[in-house]
Amino acid sequence: MRPEQREMNNETYRVCFDICDMVNEKRKKGKDNVHDYPAAVAACAVSWNRYRCSIINTSGKVVKTSFHKTPSLEAALNALGTIGSKRDGCNNYIGACAEPHAARSVLETNPGIAVKNLVFSYAYRPRTKMMIRYCGNCTKVFNIQNP
User: Fold this and answer.
1) d(CA 117, CA 122)
2) Following DSSP, what letter does each residue of 90-125 receive, concatenated?
3) Under a CB-based contact definition with an 8 Å cutoff, are residues 122 and 132 in contact?
4) 89-119 confidence digits (pLDDT tens)
5) Rounded CA gap, 66 and 56, in Å?
């Protein structure tokens, strides 16, 4: 693991703890709706300038226009199939993971960066604080490997 990934993992894990604490507080007050919280949290950064560009984002629903402002990412996702649909070999919807959302945020603020120059933290499940393995869609689009 590269040092910048270790740093992003620590930061992402802290965000998960904050979300978990928020969930637990609301549960204590009887105001919990688990669907209000993200299923996953991940960080993305530009490999040559990690800290300034590091952005944490969450998984979520995808609409057809979600990636229009980032044509390189949109093209990479469309190479797998229709954004927002499932493809054979992966249970996740294309573009719905935390990694594409974090990548979109980085690419929107840093136009011209290639998708291949992005690095990612591990994704974590905020409700359980457990690490989530990269799905088949993310490993193909971002050329990342599971630990």
Assistant:
1) 16
2) -SSBTT-SHHHHHHHHHHHHSTT--GGGEEE--EEE
3) yes
4) 899 999 999 899 989 988 988 888 889 888 8
5) 17
What is the pTM (predicted TM-score) of this model? 0.80
Task: Count the Cβ atoms, other than its own, within 10 Å of residue 139.
Answer: 15
Angle CA 119–123–128, to nearest 5? 165
Residue 60: burial class (beta carbons within 10 Å; 0-12, 13-18, 19+): middle
Q: Give me the residue label for tokens 């573009």.
A: 95
| Digitized pLDDT (tens) for each residue of the chain, 147 residues in all | 556 566 666 777 777 677 767 766 776 776 655 555 677 888 787 765 544 445 666 677 776 677 888 999 999 999 999 999 998 889 999 999 989 998 998 898 888 888 988 888 888 887 777 888 999 999 999 988 887
130-132 and 123-125 strand pairing: antiparallel
